Backbone:
């Protein structure tokens, strides 16, 4: 079985400061991990993915995430937040044994202060 | 544009009515999904079809019936709508065996409000 825990339901940062969104996962197999972003009243867009290649993954819009197997974590970071980063972020896990299904975390709401 | 498209974008209806949400993808994917996002933004899979065959059917009331006329379409029909059905419904697609590496492509969602 697989599951995802996003440790913060809400993160508030000032524009220009770093953003950290924390995600821990549990998986019986070697998982693939994703971060999706959902802007208000929009669909979900893939930010980045980890699929057992490099543990530091770069995504769109300056985001990156590091896969740490020993800590079962996949935290998302950005060095400098922009107002357009205000959105809902979902950490997602997929296991090779159950290829069809992605399991979503509960989401982290990011607000960016001017 | 290559995409997953859902219609309608918004749907407001009375309790007891029957309604459908349509989904189409032109990405050449062979697997399609319906997810429900509740008021707390939690996303939960409802159904998945691969080449018109049902492969995932989570614990969903029988009032929800997916229909896949071909592998590019997956529609969701809901009978006897209830207040608790109010949510955002997302359609998604992937290529069989590749969601592990590539994730899904999502539609923009249908916001269903039952009054």
Residues:
């Amino acid at each position: 079985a697989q599951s995802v825990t996003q440790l913060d339901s809400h993160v508030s940062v000032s524009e220009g400061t770093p953003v950290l969104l924390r995600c821990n996962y549990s998986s019986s197999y070697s998982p693939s991990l994703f971060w999706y972003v959902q802007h208000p009243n929009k669909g979900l867009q893939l930010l980045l993915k980890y699929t057992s290649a490099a543990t530091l993954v770069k995504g769109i819009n300056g985001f990156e995430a590091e896969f740490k197997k020993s800590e079962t974590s996949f935290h998302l970071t950005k060095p400098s937040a922009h107002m357009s980063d205000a959105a809902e972020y979902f950490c997602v896990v997929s296991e090779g044994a159950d290829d069809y299904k992605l399991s979503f975390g509960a989401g982290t709401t990011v607000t960016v202060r001017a | 544009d290559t995409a997953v498209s859902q219609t309608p974008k918004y749907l407001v209806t009375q309790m007891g009515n029957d309604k459908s949400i349509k989904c189409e993808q032109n990405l050449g994917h062979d697997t399609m999904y319906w997810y429900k996002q509740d008021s707390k933004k939690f996303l939960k899979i409802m159904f998945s079809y691969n080449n018109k065959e049902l492969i995932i059917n989570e614990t969903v009331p029988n009032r929800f019936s997916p229909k896949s006329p071909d592998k590019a379409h997956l529609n969701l029909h809901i009978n006897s709508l209830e207040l608790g059905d109010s949510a955002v419904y997302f359609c998604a697609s992937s290529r069989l065996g590749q969601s592990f590496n590539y994730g899904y492509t999502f539609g923009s969602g249908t916001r269903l409000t039952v009054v």
In short: Chain B has one domain: 4-114. The helical segments of chain B are 99-102. Chain B touches chain A at residues 4, 31, 33, 40-45, 48, 50, 55-56, 90, 92, 96-97, 99-109, 111 (CB under 8 Å). The mean pLDDT of chain B is 90.
